[in-house]
Write a structure and sequence with these properties.
Chain lengths: 223, 256
């Protein structure tokens, strides 16, 4: 059923989508980390307005589906407001980044809050300023706690990049669909290969997560 | 006549509905070693936590070197102290905690060096030398590059003391520093405190359940009961001469 020459035929075609998948993943990951730290810290702000505004962002993006957000950014917003978010590559990066940034901001917030209270007290006793307490004592420990969750979300983000094929990006899944629609009998081999591609891309991330867990076990005083 | 370095004037503290401290008046003189004893929940720890600016008094004033700790002058009125005001006064005070509160992501040497370098902006090499000297003094000269998780409780507490001492406080607060330790580790920590009490001219306030030790090293003993200082004086006065029934009962229970 699965012929070796079909495999040789399909493989290079799917590989053409690799660049898009990887570049969207990297850009979206960076963007989401920035959003996560910005929003996570804003939610801990003393300013009520900043806190509320940020939680509106977080809850909207957590509470609705990524694919609908993608379509909003790609189809609805340009029509309603005449704003173009740039190419479909950028739209994909922004949608995925905003969505995962919202989830991960909760990780940032939770990690900072879960550093033991005694750490802040010790920092006060050493007469550190509020900023020094955060920079030297709380944040480095919170960061260790965030690492495993961040790598977990990054693995999810890799899989979420496949959605950009729906707004015309030529990623791995897009080429898979093209081949399948040209020759339905190749569907099994195509989708097996697509899965393998994603899995191979996820492997280094899974490895990174293991490392992150080891790091985070050391050097944290949590409540 | 020597002026007190710390003065508590009718200090009250409530947590919600519960009034923990009901009017504390206390003078601490430079170099004085004070032991605070009393039953659990009598407010001993709260007294020193307010001086370390970890708790704000509900009413009353605390003066450090004549300056009001929790209030500052603004446009001719006394208002609640801001962070800048607190930081200014706090630099004279150091504290050691029951649960050590070492920074787990730093080596022992870094634990000691961080604050002098970042807070006091002191020279890094000088701070390093001073920190190593201090860690040697508490018997941990061979653990400089270890992390806190690699130490025993007694060792952690000795690091915590070195960390506080490197900041050269005029007043050191000890909050039940042996209560979280296994019994066999208590001695090594008490030895360090005894050494400090003998050789350092800073004031020390010890909240403790180690009664015999406290009575041994303290110039002044405070017996705190139900939110007030029920009895105070030298160790001898407090133990032998007080006819406070609750104090006598307390001493009977805690002294070996």
């Amino acid at each position: 059923m699965i012929k070796i020459n079909a495999l040789i035929e399909v493989f290079p075609q799917l590989a053409r989508g690799l660049g898009i998948t990887v570049s969207v993943l990297i850009a979206a990951a960076i963007f989401s980390y920035i959003m996560a730290f910005a929003a996570g810290l804003c939610r801990l702000s003393k300013n009520v307005f900043i806190r509320k505004a940020t939680s509106v962002y977080v809850e909207i993006f957590r509470g609705t589906s990524l694919i609908v957000q993608l379509f909003w950014l790609y189809y609805a917003i340009p029509m309603l407001f005449g704003i173009q978010l740039g190419s479909n590559w950028w739209t994909g990066v922004i949608a995925i980044g905003l969505n995962y940034g919202a989830y991960m901001s909760e990780v940032v917030r939770g990690s900072i809050l879960s550093v033991a209270k005694g750490q802040t007290e010790a920092a006060i006793a050493l007469n550190m300023s509020p900023f020094q307490r955060m920079r030297l004592v709380i944040f480095p420990q919170a960061l260790r706690m965030m690492l495993p969750e961040f790598s977990n979300y990054t693995i999810q983000m890799l899989k979420a990049t496949s959605l950009v094929s729906l707004i015309g990006m030529t990623d791995i899944l897009y080429y898979g669909d093209i081949i399948r629609s040209a020759n339905l009998s190749q569907a099994p081999i195509v989708y097996v290969l697509v899965l393998i591609f994603y899995f191979l891309l996820a492997l280094p991330l899974i490895f990174l997560q293991r490392k992150a867990e080891e790091i985070s076990k050391k050097g944290v005083a949590s409540q | 006549m020597l002026k007190p370095i710390v003065e508590y004037k009718d200090v009250h503290k409530s947590f919600g509905e519960v009034e923990v401290l009901k009017g504390i008046n206390l003078d601490i003189y430079p170099g004085e070693k004070i032991a605070v004893i009393g039953p659990s929940g009598s407010g001993k720890t709260t007294i020193i936590r307010m001086l370390m600016t970890l708790e704000e008094p509900t009413s009353g004033d605390i003066y450090v070197d004549g300056k009001n700790l929790w209030k500052m002058e603004k446009n001719g009125e006394m208002v609640r102290a801001n962070e800048k005001h607190l930081r200014e006064i706090r630099s004279d005070i150091g504290m050691v905690f029951q649960h050590f509160n070492l920074f787990p992501h730093m080596t022992i040497l870094e634990n000691c060096m961080t604050a002098p370098i970042h807070v006091k902006k002191e020279d890094k090499e000088e701070v390093r030398e001073r920190s190593i000297h201090m860690l040697e003094r508490v018997g941990l000269g061979d653990k400089l590059n270890n992390y806190p998780s690699q130490l025993s409780g007694g060792q952690k507490q000795r690091v915590a003391m070195a960390r506080a001492l490197v900041m050269r406080p005029k007043i050191m607060l000890f909050d039940e520093v042996t209560s979280a330790l296994d019994p066999e580790l208590v001695g090594e920590v008490l030895e360090v405190i005894r050494d400090l009490a003998k050789h350092e001219d800073m004031a020390m306030v010890l909240v403790t359940h180690e009664m015999d030790f406290a009575l041994d090293i303290a110039d002044k003993v405070l017996f705190l009961d139900k939110g007030i200082i029920a009895e105070q004086g030298t160790a001898r006065e407090v133990i032998e001469q007080s006819d406070n029934a609750r104090l006598q009962e307390f001493l009977r229970r805690f002294r070996k």
